[in-house]
C-alpha cells in the first residue's frame, strides 16, 4: 500500500502544474497572508472578553420586505414550510443523504458520517479540509454550518408569528457565533461557505424583523456585528483566482455584495460593495456562455450560480445600489436556459457533478430544486410563452417583493431553444403535444471550466434519455465528493457514463477528485431537425494520446413519430479494445438476450438493440469492480442496471444501437408502419460522410 504522504505531494505537484505563473504568485502571496493572519485568530475562549464595537446607534437594518408580502405566499408553500419547520423543532433534518436527529442543538464540528469531530481551537489555515482524519466528511460538516435551516425557521416565524421558531433561531445563531470566532476551526477554511452564510444572515434578519428580540440578536449584539464584519474581511482578503475562479468566486462575491448592502455598518462597506459588484459582474460573464449555460457544464452548478447571482442582485436593488444591466441580462439568460433544458417534469440534465447546492432556504427543501429556481426566474424576469409552468412559492414571491420591479433586459428567445452550440448541449425531444415526452440530452461540448475542470466528468458524447421524466438511459450522478475515493472515481469515469471507452483510457485524464490533467474537447458537427427527425453528430479528441491516435464520433437520431432513437458510434484510427456502457435509471428493469435488451418501467417499455460486434453483459450493484449504480443525490446510491459491451473494434466500423420506446406492453421494436426497425448502413452516421467529404476537399 502506497504512503499517503507521497500521494499528497504528487497531488500538489499536479495541481501546481495547472496554474499560471500569475496564479502561483497570487497563491504564494495568499499563503504568506495566511501565516501573518494567525495572530488575528480569536480562540473560542476569548469571545467573552472581546471589547465592544461601534455604538449600537450606528446600526440599522432597512432592507425590509413590503408589509403585504407574507399574504402573497401560496397556501401550499406556507403549509410545506410549517411542516418542515416542525421537523426541525423536533430535532430531525436530512442533509446530503443523512438523517440527523441532533438539530435541536447541533454540534458545529461533528461529522455524522465518520463520527469525527474537528478541533474548534485550531487556526483555520492549519487544518486540512481534505483530511477525513482531521475534519471528517467536510461536505457534511459545512452543510449544517451554512445555517440555511435557520432561514427556514425564520420563514416559518414570518408566516405564522409563532415565537418557537424565532427562539430556536436565536439560540442557534448565538451558539454558532460563539463557537466559531474569527479564523478558529474548519468553518473558516472556505470562502464559498462564508458567502452563503452572509446571504442567509441577511434573510434571517429580514424575516424576523417584527420579532421582539431581533435587534438584540443582530444590531445590539456586538458578537453578531463582529461576525458579519469578520466574514467580509475574510472575503476581501482571500479571493478565489485563476484555476479556482469558478462558482467559489461567485459565491464569495455574492455574499460580500449581499452583506455590504444589507449591513452597511462599517467603514469598509462602500468599498466592499463596489468591489464585489464588479467581481460578480465579471465572474458571471466569465462563468457563463453567451447562450446562458454555465461553463462548468455541471447542471446543478448552473442552478446554484443563478441563485447566488439572483439573491445578491436582489439585495443590491433593495439597498438602492442596483447591479449593472449586463449582470441582470446574464442572470436572465441563465433563467431562460434553465427553462429550455428541463424535461416535462421540470427535471434538469444530470451532467457533471452535483452536490445539491442551494443558497437561501425560503421554502421546504425539495430534491429537485429547479422548479423553485424557475419560479424565481419567472418572478424576476417574467415567463416567456414557451416556458414550462412552475408554481409560485415563498422564495419567488419574497424575492420579487424585495426587488420591487422587473429589471429591464434585452433580447430573449421567442422559441424554446434546443441547441446551445457554445456549450455543446443539444436536446432531441418529441413535440409538446406528443405524450409521453421522449427527452434526450447529447453532450458534444468542452470539458468543464478552467484548467482543472473541477466538476466535469469524463462523459464526452454521452447521452441521457427520459420518457415522461423517467430516466431510461441515465447519467448515474455523483454520489460523493470526499471520503470514498473509489466511488468518486467510478461516478466520474468514462465507463460510468453512456459513451464509449477506448483502449482502457478515460477520455479526460484525472489528477484528483477535482482535478483534470487532460481535457477531451468535444465538437458538434451537425444538428439538423426537419420536425420529423432530429439528428445530432459530434466527435471528441480525448483519445489522441493512444497510439495510433483515435477519434470517437457519435450520431444520434430521434424519429419522433416512431418514438425511436438511433445511436451510431464510430472509432477511427485503428483497432482498439472498446467498452460501451448504457446505464439505466433505477425504475427500469432489464432483461438481456444476446445483443437485445428488453426494458420495462412503470407505465412503459422499450426494446434496446445493441451492437452485435460487442459481447454484452448485465450488471446491477456490482462492487468489484464498481458497476451498476445510480445516485439521486449526494450521499445516496442505489443499484441500477447497466449494460456493458466489450470487444475489439475495427477502426471505422460503425456500432449501431436502437432504442424503440413503446407506449403499451405490445412488442417494442416495430415501427409505426409495422416494419421491423433496421439500420441502413449508408446513412447510419450521416454527419460522418459530410465531414469526410469536407476533409477531402
Describe this entry's structure for a reader.
The chain has 697 residues and is an alpha+beta fold. It has 2 domains: 348 residues, Chondroitin AC/alginate lyase (Glycosyltransferase); 277 residues, Beta-galactosidase, Chain A, domain 5, CATH 2.70.98.70. 34% of the residues lie in helices and 18% in strands. It contains 18 helices and 25 strands. Strand 22 and strand 23 form a beta hairpin. Helix 6 packs antiparallel against helix 7 and helix 13 runs antiparallel to helix 14. The longest helix has 20 residues.
Question: Which range does the strand content fall in?
Answer: 15-25%
Main beta sheet: strand number and arrangement?
Answer: 8 strands, antiparallel
Number of domains: 2
**What is the residue-mean pLDDT, rounded to a whole number?**
91
Q: Strand sequence of the main sheet, in spatial order?
A: 11-12-13-14-25-18-17-16
Compute the separation of the termini in Å: 55 Å
Give the overall shape.
Answer: globular
- Backbone CA Rg: 26 Å
Low-confidence regions:
1-6, 665-684, 686-697
